[in-house]
Design a protein that fits this description.
Blueprint (H helix, E strand, L loop, with lengths): L10 E7 L2 E6 L10 H15 L6 E6 L4 E3 L4 H6 L11 H24 L4 E5 L2 E3 L1 H7 L3 E5 L3 E3 L13 H4 L7 H10 L5 H7 L4 E3 L2 H16 L3 H14 L4 H15 L3 H11 L10
Parallel strand pairs: 2-3, 3-5, 4-6, 5-7, 6-8, 7-9
Antiparallel strand pairs: 1-2
Helix pairs in contact: 1-3, 9-10
């Protein structure tokens, strides 16, 4: 698949290595703040990547050095009534429309989580609000030491509703810290993020962080897509379920997937002391 197949407004998609896609949020003049069309395009890109046989791992970052994303473009959202539902008449009917709107935006972010391929998000600079929604829907999170995180929604008079308040309590982080950053909207940096476990890597600048992410994606891309996609699916399914339920699910999953020729190819390559290659999926 060529980059020409991924031409979406406010995004750039490239392929820096075999089986690796690099998605860049591209509105740097506005700190990569999201307009409604950007949510919709993000969903379409990740749905497309999910089924692209030439892609096995995705890296997501923001254009420019100032911000991964400043979150929602509040001015634009307020102007069209997306936040308050202003001018929508009867309260019950307005609430129904707003609920549909929220659910659609939630689905746009969940497209990252539902992507069959692992997604590595690299945060840098200003990473407010939606930045947390996006990275928490990702599989691996990296950042720079200068990243400025903030769950900003309480400062604009609302409870975050696109994913952070639902995913963060399930991320294995201390609940007191979760409530601290959600209730105060205070900024925290990359060092705090890695200390608490929000990210698994913190690097000196964006260039180095993206390079590390692409290197990690290249490693993942060389592995069996059957094994990688199955691993992501089983881990995500096991979250919030009992160990017994997870064991049963992976048994059913592997009843089919263990029949892949990738197992034989990987074992044979090991015996022959060579790197295995796997068919596209």
């Amino acid at each position: 698949m060529s980059a020409a197949a991924y031409e979406y407004e406010y995004f750039k998609v490239s392929f820096p290595a075999e089986y690796v896609a690099l998605v860049v949020i591209d509105r740097p003049g506005k700190l990569n703040a999201f307009l409604e069309v950007m949510w919709l395009n993000l969903r379409q890109i990740f749905r497309q990547l999910s089924h692209d046989p030439d892609v096995r791992c995705v890296v997501l970052t923001g254009a420019g050095d100032r911000a991964f994303t400043a979150g929602l473009d509040v001015q634009a959202a307020a102007a069209d009534g997306a936040i308050t539902g202003a001018g929508r008449g009867d309260v019950a009917r307005a609430a129904a429309k707003i609920r549909r709107h929220i659910l659609e935006f939630q689905d746009c972010i969940t497209a990252i989580e539902k992507c069959e391929k692992p997604v590595i998000t690299v945060l840098h600079g200003i990473s407010y609000g939606l930045a947390l929604d996006i990275c928490l829907a990702s599989d691996i999170r990296l950042c720079t030491s200068g990243t400025r995180f903030s769950i900003k929604e309480v400062d604009i008079g609302l409870a975050a509703d696109i994913g952070t308040l639902s995913r963060l309590p399930h991320s294995g982080l201390p609940l007191s810290w979760v409530k601290d950053v959600c209730l105060t909207a205070r900024e925290f940096n990359g060092q705090e993020a890695i200390a608490v476990g929000l990210v698994s890597g913190c690097f000196e600048n964006k260039e180095v962080a993206v390079e590390k992410a692409v290197g990690m994606a290249r490693v993942i891309g060389r592995k069996s897509p059957v094994a990688v996609q199955g691993t992501k699916e089983v881990i995500n399914h096991s979250r919030g379920r009992t160990v017994e339920e997870g064991l049963n699910y992976v048994a059913v999953w592997n009843a089919a997937m263990l029949q892949t020729k990738d197992v034989k190819d990987a074992m044979l390559a090991g015996l022959q002391k060579r790197k295995p290659t796997f068919e596209k999926m």
